[in-house]
Amino acid sequence: MRCIGGPSVAKIHRTLLQSLPESCHEHFLLQLAKEKTPESLSAAQALRLPKYRLLALVPPELASNKQFQYVLAHKLLLRKPINDLFFWRMLVDVLSACGTDPCESPLASVFDVVLARWGQSDFPTTADYAVNASVCFFLRYSLQKLTENDGGAAFAQRDWIPKLCKGVQDHMSHSLERVRALGMRVGESLSHVIAAEKPLDFGLEDADPLTIYGCPVSTADLEEMVDILDLNATLTREEALRPLSSDGDNDRRRQRWRAKKRTAKPFVLDPDELVLSGDEGGEEESEVDGDSESDASSGYESNGDSDSDMSLEAFDLQDDEEDLTATRPLYLKDLVAGLLADEDREKTEVALAEAENLLRRRPRDIHDKAQEVVRALLRLEDKYSTPHFAKLRAQSLAAACALAPSQTLPYLHSQALEREQLLQSRIDVLQAMTSAAQELSERGAGSQKPRGPKTLLQEAVGSQNGGDEGDLGMRTMQSLKTRRWGYRRDPLAAPKKNAFAPHALEFFSPLLFGYVEYMRKHSLGSDTTGKSRNEVEQTFLAHLLHALASFVECAGHAPQTVAMAKCLLEFAWSERSSSNAEVRRQVLFSVSRVLLVVPPALVRQEMGDGLAEVTPWLQLVQRQDPDTGCREAARLLLSFASVPSLPIEMR
Q1: Which one of 280, 428, 475, 554 has the lowest number of neighbouring Cβ atoms within 10 Å?
Q2: Which of 40-54, 364-378, 507-521, 548-562 bottoms out in mean pLDDT, i.e. has the lowest?
Q3: DSSP type of residue 272
Q4: Is residue 277 part of a domain?
Q5: How confident is the model over 228-248, as a mean pLDDT?
Q6: Rounded to an integer, what distance in angstroms lies between the CA atom of residue 122 and that of residue 471?
Q7: Does some domain include residue 439?
Q8: In this predicted structure, what is the pLDDT of residue 545?
């Protein structure tokens, strides 16, 4: 801020303010608001500071500008946390001074906009407290200015009182005490308008900001501030704290200021608009006055257009692209629709990623929609190379089968035994049922969150076919090696309910007897050695035996376990001479599962004593089988003490 020489300083500064571009209004006001004000100053002392004296020079034409009012209301008062209440007081004084009727002044326009937002129900909750405090002070001080001439008669004709009452009620209903206090202060100020004879008093202990920052200041003091405006001098704290000077001191100060002005060097504010000369000639001074008046008139004409482009609020061109991202399905019908949306990659991938979580939340219609979800998952293809596609689909299938087995098992059985289906799809169905059985068998009655399928340590076991067959071999051998043979649980431990037991036959019987019927239908069972089966059918049979053996293991000590074990043993024994090494491994795995869950004495009782022993066959496999996995499995089974005395029917 600098000193500007000339006979009419106030007029020059008003011209400069009027010539500000509309795009600079916000920056100009923000810069003034950032100037610090000492807290210990009274209203009369604080208003002598240069920032407030400059605000007092805002011309009526600028205050009436629609863009200036928009910046003041929307960009500053309702958005910026400006705690300088003297700043808002001075702006209210400037806006109310335009025109004879305050209710028709620019203050009324700004007051109406601010009150409309303050009276909304969400303002006490969403607005920052500092912003809310500034708005409340603005409303209260504006109430004084709008009602000081006629006692509120013109004010009552507007629709402001209902909005104020609603805003006061919303603030007083807030949970924070300081927000309720703001509503009470506005209510007290409003009561002086509608019930001046008996105003409200909530008895708040804190000092009233309106009393401190809105106390009256004499007109003579304000005029003196304007007359002695010096933008180059910085008012120190000691000068601001000095009391107002007497008339003699004011005269001497004016004389010293004029003498300093005559010796001051010329200063050019803007070479394109206003040039001031340091000469004392009246001709040059009159020329300066004429130029400033012409600039002011041109500024009035340019700013008078309230419909210019600057008065319009710019659109936000930033796009976070949230509308382009597929939303997560919240219901099973949305999940099915997303899985079936073949042409919408994002929607399909989001549905697949959310499928298991949505099923785990157990929606009410899971039993009605589970089969549709399974059908959509099996139909889904990895056409977009989705990361972890196989894992996500397998987990979702297992979750649907475990949570709604009665509704999903019939469809899964039909797909597993459908010859026209791809081999991988049929294997995925068997693995999903196996994972569901393992999950149900490990989950107790008191558990809230089901645990996932048991994970087996990986061990490299050779496989002729690789891929899924190799993984099946590793799981089989590791299950044999990590099983603690002869381990007995603590008989004093509390029994744990097996959630799989009620559904064991639903898993086991349709799959086993359905496959027997499948072999008869397609003439695949005439050769007991399995030589008539092609490589695809041999691979599927290996996975089928593994799934059936897992069902028997998961059934535990359920009443139907013995019958299931007997059927599995008879079916697996018929495949012991298969030419496929993977099938022979699963035969050994099936024998181990039967011996694991059924006591040997009970097996002997069910099978009879006139049967050949299994030990010679295991010894033969250990010595002569060409597959390393089969030899290792036979060795582990022979180490089990009950095997040599266990007779098994051979067919």
Answers
A1: 280
A2: 40-54
A3: T
A4: yes
A5: 44
A6: 59
A7: no
A8: 94
Nearest in space to 578 (alpha carbons), one of 622, 606, 542, 609 = 542
The closest of 439, 364, 353 to 399, measured between CA atoms, is 439
Whether 197 is covered by a domain: the verdict is yes
The reported pLDDT for the residue numbered 479 is 65
Mean pLDDT, residues 616-630 taken together? 86
Least Cα distance to 369 among 413, 416, 347, 337 occurs for 337
What mean pLDDT comes out for the span 394-417?
94
Could you read off the pLDDT of 36-56 as tens digits, one per residue? Answer: 888 777 777 777 788 788 878
Residue burial 532-545, b: 16+ Cβ < 10 Å; e: rest = ebeeebbbbbbbbb
- CA 32/CA 615 separation, integer angstroms: 99
Tally the residues of the chain.
Answer: 651
What are the Cα distances from residue 161, in Å, to 109, 186, 604? 15, 11, 95
Closest listed residue to residue 14, CA positions, set 45, 43, 53: 53
Domain membership of residue 89 as a residue range: 9-32+42-308
Residue 145 tokens, joined? 């200015």
Tell me the angle at which helices 535-555 and 581-597 cross, rounded to the nearest 10 degrees. Answer: 10
Long-range contacts for 478-483 (Cβ within 8 Å, ≥24 apart)?
A: 479/589, 480/588, 480/589, 480/592, 480/632, 480/633, 480/636, 480/637, 481/636, 482/456, 482/457, 483/592, 483/596
Cα–Cα distance, 119 to 300 (Å, whole number): 34
Question: For the chain, how many helices (H) and strands (E)?
Answer: 32, 0
Distance (Å, rounded) from C-alpha 480 to C-alpha 457? Answer: 11
Task: Say whether pLDDT at 202 is over 50.
Answer: yes
Q: Which of 6, 18, 22, 2 is nearest to 295 (CA)?
A: 18
Domain count, the chain: 1
Is the pLDDT higher at 216 or at 8?
216
Residue 597 lies in a domain: no
**Largest Cα–Cα distance of the chain, in whole Å?**
139
Q: How confident is the model at residue 455 (pLDDT cuts 50, 70, 90)?
A: very low
pLDDT score of 125:
87
Asked if 276 contacts 16 with a C-beta cutoff of 8 angstroms, the reply is: no
Q: How far apart are CA 15 and CA 17, in angstroms?
A: 5
Q: Are 82 and 36 in contact (CB under 8 A)?
A: no
The distance from CA 521 to its chain's CA centroid, rounded to whole angstroms, is 56
**pLDDT score for 392:** 94
The whole-angstrom distance between residue 593's C-alpha and the CA centroid of its chain comes to 48
- For 492-543, what is each residue's pLDDT tens digit? 455 678 889 999 999 999 999 999 998 888 764 444 444 567 888 999 999 9
Residue-level pLDDT at 576: 86
Cα 492 from Cα 487, distance rounded (Å): 15
